[in-house]
């Protein structure tokens, strides 16, 4: 999962990035001004925006207003030192999905991020009583109430395939989504993880279809 953090405090940015990247294995991008946010969101796919209200340039409220006006629907978590009810109401009315007041505990940030990503990823609907439920927090899928554990990389792949259910996801996008810029995956890394995930889905009514030379697609059998 790809998370963009818009925060101008370097120490807080570093702490948030460590919690999300190192402890939870999310891909994390960081910007320090409001002017950078929308341009980056329009050029790169992200699954969640963590947005500080007090950014230099465009403030967080104006950034949020422009994001929603442009049609971008990714979840937005406002992270702000302004904790008045008026500010919270304003942020939520502009289209924020949650509001986290500073200072906060890292565990609360992780919980709120996980909840927003679960809500946006959702669960594949049942098919003639044989359903597939996915829980990225516990790193499991459930097929007819049978719980199957997933690796960290499998969770990342499953999250993206579910988000794009029925559409082809390119191999390059998968690599960009589950590996940071500092990592160098092997030439067949994605194929290995998809193969393992496909085996774990074998008893479900869903399958991962390979589009050779392009990517992968999660669909009903």
Given the C-alpha coordinates, what overall shape results?
Answer: elongated
Judged by helices, strands and strand pairing, the structural class is alpha/beta
Q: Estimate what percentage of residues fall within beta strands.
A: 15-25%
Give the helices and strands as they follow along the chain.
EHEHEHEHEHEEEHEHHEE
Determine the mean pLDDT: 85
Task: For the largest sheet, list the strands in their spatial order.
Answer: 2-1-3-4-5
CATH class assignment of the largest domain: Alpha Beta
Mind summarizing the main beta sheet? 5 strands, parallel
CATH fold-level topology of the largest domain: Rossmann fold
Rounded Rg: 18 Å
Low-confidence stretches: 124-130
**CATH homologous superfamily identity of the largest domain:** Response regulator
Which CATH-level-2 architecture of the largest domain? Answer: 3-Layer(aba) Sandwich
Please, how many helices?
8
In whole angstroms, the N-to-C terminal distance is 25 Å
Number of strands: 11
What percent of the residues sit in helical stretches (DSSP H or I)?
A: 40-55%
Domain module tally: 2
Task: Characterise the protein shown here.
The protein has 221 residues and is of the alpha/beta class. It has two domains: 2-119, Response regulator (Rossmann fold), CATH 3.40.50; 122-220, Winged helix-like DNA-binding domain superfamily/Winged helix DNA-binding domain (Arc Repressor Mutant, subunit A), CATH 1.10.10. Helix content is 41%, strand content 23%. The protein has eight helices and eleven strands. It has helices at residues 10-22, 34-43, 60-69, 85-94, 106-121, 152-163, 171-178, 189-200; strands at 2-6, 27-31, 48-52, 76-80, 98-101, 132-135, 140-143, 146-149, 169-170, 206-211, 215-220. The strands form three sheets. It has a five-stranded parallel β-sheet, sandwiched between helices. Strand 6 and strand 7 (140-143) form a beta hairpin. Helix 2 (34-43) packs parallel to helix 3 and helix 6 (152-163) packs across helix 8. The protein is elongated, with a radius of gyration of 18 Å. The two termini are 25 Å apart.
């Amino acid at each position: 999962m790809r998370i963009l953090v818009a925060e101008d405090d370097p120490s807080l940015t570093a702490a948030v990035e460590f919690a999300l990247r190192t402890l939870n294995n999310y891909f994390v991008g960081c910007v320090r001004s409001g002017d950078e946010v929308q341009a980056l969101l329009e050029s790169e796919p992200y699954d969640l925006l963590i947005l500080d209200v007090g950014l230099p340039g465009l403030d967080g409220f104006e950034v949020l207003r422009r994001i929603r006006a442009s049609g971008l629907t990714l979840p937005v978590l406002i992270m702000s030192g302004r904790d008045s009810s008026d500010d919270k109401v304003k942020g939520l009315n502009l289209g924020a999905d949650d509001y986290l007041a500073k200072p906060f505990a890292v565990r609360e940030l992780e919980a709120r991020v996980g909840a927003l990503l679960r809500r946006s990823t959702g669960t594949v609907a049942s098919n003639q009583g044989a359903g597939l439920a996915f829980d990225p927090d516990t790193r499991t899928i459930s097929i007819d109430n049978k719980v199957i554990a997933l690796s960290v990389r499998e969770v990342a792949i499953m999250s993206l395939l579910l988000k794009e259910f029925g559409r082809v996801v390119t191999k390059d996008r998968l690599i960009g989504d589950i590996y940071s810029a500092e990592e160098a995956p092997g030439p067949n890394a994605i194929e290995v993880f998809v193969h393992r995930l496909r085996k774990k889905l074998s008893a479900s009514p869903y399958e991962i279809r390979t589009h050779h030379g392009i990517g992968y697609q999660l669909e009903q059998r």
